[in-house]
Structures are given as structure tokens and as C-alpha cells.
Specification:
The protein is an alpha/beta fold. It has one domain: Alpha/Beta hydrolase fold, catalytic domain (Rossmann fold), CATH 3.40.50.1820. About 40% of the residues lie in helices and about 20% in strands. It has ten helices and nine strands. Strands 1-2-3-5-4-6-7-8-9 form a nine-stranded mixed beta sheet, sandwiched between helices.
Length: about 270
């Protein structure tokens, strides 16, 4: 257990294999933070310190990330959403508030699709949800080939991280936050990342947004080039009662780039979703 910004944060492991490593702060309703494809649980430290005041705030390393176990088989989105329920069961939570960034938002959506009675609210940050109509096979293959090639040629995530981070950040990011995100990318497990990239890029089994019946917040950085504001607006319009918050100047990792504003809008939303 460690003291971070006057908040006690404990690191815990949830089994069985592949076991998950999580950071936890506070006690209350379960609030689970789900990182993006290039992240890890450390991306949510500012949120754990803030929301641990009234929630059991938990951030995971998804399977194959950070200090969680790698795995031998191919990956399915259901593995991630099953893991969400594993975390909920571990903490004895009947229902869970989910906050997912980018890929984490897709995991949150799949968790609601498969386990709607277990989900109390959804926060979808810098997230896009494609479809068979919008994910043209040719474009998917070109994208995957470009992402796989450097790693398959022997480059390491640490070598690629300085270039990749420039593709996702906004213009207002501070030096400390930029270094943090670069380190997150450098810490990727190459084999697990490649399996995750393949699965997430090809995944199309999203829920019908019109059927989502839990409180939903959509957050997007105004400078997000990966899942831009127009995508967030379309998602918000499609989900009954959803609310949109645009964080000025932030890029694709809005919770790290603008943590105070991210926490403010999430705080307001959760106060009405509990």
C-alpha cells in the first residue's frame, strides 16, 4: 500500500490465471477504470486519488498489460468483458460504474451488452465504435499491417513510443504528462499488444446504442485525432439521455492530459448516476 496525493492506494491481484493486477483506493460503490490499447493502470492515478474519496475506485492492467498475466490463446472481446465481471465479483459488487478510455470504452460497451444487469453507468472517453459498414476490410488490413510491421521487424515498444505518443496527444499537454504517456507505450508487452490490436480493430459486435438504458457520459478531447469530437457527438446522439463533455485542448488521452477537468465532469455525472 502506498500514499499518493494523500490517498491510500493498494495494489492487489485478482485470480485465477490470467491474473489481473489492479490499483485500488477508497470504499463505496465500485468504480472501475479501463485504460486504452497503449495504456496501463498507472494512467488513472489522478482519478483514483480523486474518486477514492467516495468510491471503491479501481484501475486495472488488462490481461496482457502491465503487471497482469500474459496469456497463450487468441484474444476475444468477451475475455475483457468477462474480466470486468471477475473484478466486480472479487469486490462483491452487484453493479459497477465503468469508465473506459478508447479501447476501454469498447470494453465497457461490450460489458453492458453482455451483462446489462451488472452495469450501473457508462463513461465513454475518447472512444469510437465502428461497424461492418464503416470498417472497410481494405482499410483495416492496411492499418493492421502498418502497426504490426515495426514490431515484427524487431523494434521494441520503447523505440516506437516517442513517435506514437505524438500521434495521440493534444497541444496543451504538460511535459510530465507526455513523459508518463511515453512510458506507458514503452511498457507494452509486444505479443499481447499485437493480439489486442488485431482483435480490437476487427471487432464489430457493438450494442445497438438506442437500447442502452443506463446513465451514460461521453467525454472527448477537442483535439482528439483518433476518436474526434464529431464521432463523440454522433455516439451521444444515438444513446438515449447521454451527455457529452468536450475537454478543451486535450487529445486522445484526456484523463491524463487534463485530469482536473476530466475529474470535474466525471464527478458531476456520477453524483447523478449513483
Amino acid at each position: 500500500m502506498s500514499l499518493v496525493a494523500n490517498t491510500l492506494v493498494s495494489t492487489e491481484r485478482i485470480g485465477p490465471a490470467p491474473s489481473l493486477c489492479v490499483d485500488r483506493a477508497g470504499d463505496g460503490q465500485l468504480l472501475l477504470f479501463l485504460h486504452g490499447i497503449g495504456g496501463n493502470r498507472g494512467n488513472w492515478t489522478a482519478q483514483l486519488c480523486h474518486f477514492g474519496r467516495r468510491f471503491t475506485a479501481v484501475a486495472w492492467d488488462a490481461r496482457g498489460y502491465g503487471d497482469s498475466d500474459d496469456y497463450d490463446d487468441a484474444l476475444a472481446m468477451a475475455d475483457f468483458s468477462d474480466d470486468v465481471i471477475r473484478v466486480a465479483d472479487h469486490y462483491g459488487a452487484r453493479r459497477i460504474h465503468l469508465v473506459g478510455l478508447s479501447m476501454g470504452g469498447r470494453i465497457a460497451l461490450d460489458s453492458w451488452r453482455r451483462f446489462p444487469d451488472r452495469i450501473a453507468s457508462l463513461t465513454l472517453a475518447d472512444t469510437s465504435a465502428g461497424s461492418k459498414e464503416t470498417q472497410a476490410p481494405g482499410k483495416v488490413e492496411v492499418f493492421l499491417a502498418a502497426r504490426r510491421a515495426p514490431l515484427l521487424a524487431g523494434q521494441t515498444p520503447a523505440e516506437l513510443a516517442p513517435v506514437l505518443v505524438e500521434q495521440i496527444i493534444g497541444p496543451n499537454i504538460g511535459a510530465v504528462q507526455k513523459t508518463h504517456l511515453t512510458d506507458s507505450l514503452a511498457a507494452l508487452h509486444s505479443a499481447s499488444y499485437l493480439k489486442t490490436l488485431e482483435m480490437v480493430t476487427r471487432f464489430t459486435d457493438f450494442p445497438d446504442f438506442a437500447t442502452i438504458d443506463v446513465p451514460t457520459l461521453v467525454i472527448v478531447g477537442s483535439e482528439d485525432r483518433v476518436a474526434p469530437p464529431q464521432v463523440a457527438r454522433a455516439m451521444t446522439d444515438a444513446i438515449p439521455g447521454a451527455r457529452l463533455e468536450v475537454i478543451d485542448g486535450a487529445g486522445h488521452i484526456s484523463n491524463v492530459e487534463a485530469p482536473d477537468e476530466f475529474n470535474r465532469v466525471l464527478d458531476h455525472f456520477l453524483a447523478n448516476a449513483e
